[in-house]
Design a protein that fits this description.
The chain is α/β, with parallel strands linked by helices and about 325 residues long. The protein has 11 helices and 13 strands.
Length: about 325
């Protein structure tokens, strides 16, 4: 049994991580900003300091974790209105993460698992799945802040002896998902025609329960120390294939129109949605061979099983 503190424990991924850790016999403490919002099998620690301000001073005397899984973050924001978006992202994603790392190390933690993002590396794969050895080139303030957090944590780990494990997931989906993935299911449910039948760009995805399982291994396996990993489901799908698979599980066959990519990109430019169209029409795949070879990790669920579970949840809410 390991004693594991999870930040962002009441979020979409955090709740799955807490359940997975508890189900496998670990002692889980959920760090949240509001009481009663985490998964049921975790102890709760409520701390509402902005960007973890005052965390070290508020740390409960009895809480001595072996590892911290740091999920809390300011997430990617479309059409960000902040005057200086990078400064706002840095405050939470870099300085906040460092406050957690320092406070945890002072209380005896030996490891921190930092959940970064594929966006710390790139927005598109350029023809080859992204590997940990590739030079990162983040495209926006969110991605830059995640990469800066990785670098700051590496440096702190070298100075303090805290083991740092970096995990870069691609798009995460599952029951309770929101944002673009939910909008895609809404469109399928309403039987809207979608102009994406000619899009063959492939994207890596990870089912939330597979990500939770991978994070548990990263928190507890000695071989994960001071490593960076990509994690994904067992196959990559094109956007059209994903829509067809989701439509099948929803009982709403996808209505895909084979609109040429040139027209899609022209429409994106005219409507101010060029970035969204680029994300739909360019590949973003990751190479997860390192986590599979280093930790012997295999996701417990196939991509199709993850999509089926997500569709069951969606149908139950409509």
């Amino acid at each position: 049994m390991n004693r594991i503190l999870v930040t962002g424990a009441n979020g979409f991924v955090g709740r799955s991580v807490c359940r997975t850790l508890a189900a496998n016999g670990h002692d889980v403490t959920a760090l949240v900003r509001r009481a009663g919002t985490s998964a049921g099998d975790a102890h709760e620690w409520v701390h509402n300091g902005v960007d973890f301000a005052g965390l070290a001073e508020a740390w409960p005397r009895e809480l001595v974790p072996d590892c911290v899984v740091h999920l809390a973050a300011r997430v990617h924001v479309m059409n960000d209105t902040a005057a200086d978006p990078l400064a706002v992202f840095r405050a939470t994603n870099v300085e906040g993460a460092l406050r957690v790392a320092r406070a945890a190390r002072e209380r005896g933690a030996r490891r921190m698992v930092f959940v970064s993002s594929v966006k710390a590396a790139a927005e598109f794969d350029g023809g080859l799945p992204l590997a940990e050895s590739m030079q990162p080139a983040p495209d926006d303030a969110y991605g830059v802040s995640k990469l800066q957090a990785e670098e700051a944590l590496w440096q702190y780990g070298e100075q303090s002896g805290l083991e740092i494990v970096i995990v870069r997931p691609p798009l995460v989906y599952g029951p309770g998902v929101g944002a673009n993935f939910l909008q895609m299911m809404n469109a399928l449910w309403r039987r809207l025609p979608l102009p994406l039948g000619a899009v063959d760009a492939r994207r890596s995805l990870v089912y939330v329960e597979n990500l939770a399982d991978a994070l548990m291994h990263c928190a507890t396996d000695p071989r994960a120390a001071n490593a960076r990993f990509y994690v994904r489901d067992d196959q990559d799908l094109s956007v059209a294939e994903l829509l067809r698979a989701l439509g099948h599980h929803l009982g709403r066959p996808a209505r895909l129109l084979p609109v040429p990519l040139s027209l899609l990109r022209a429409a994106g430019a005219l409507t101010g949605r060029a970035a969204q169209i680029d994300r739909l029409t360019q590949s973003l795949r990751v190479d997860d061979s390192r986590i599979r070879e280093t930790l012997g990790w295999t996701g417990p669920y196939t991509l199709d099983e993850g999509l089926a579970a997500t569709a069951r949840w969606y149908r139950s809410t409509h």
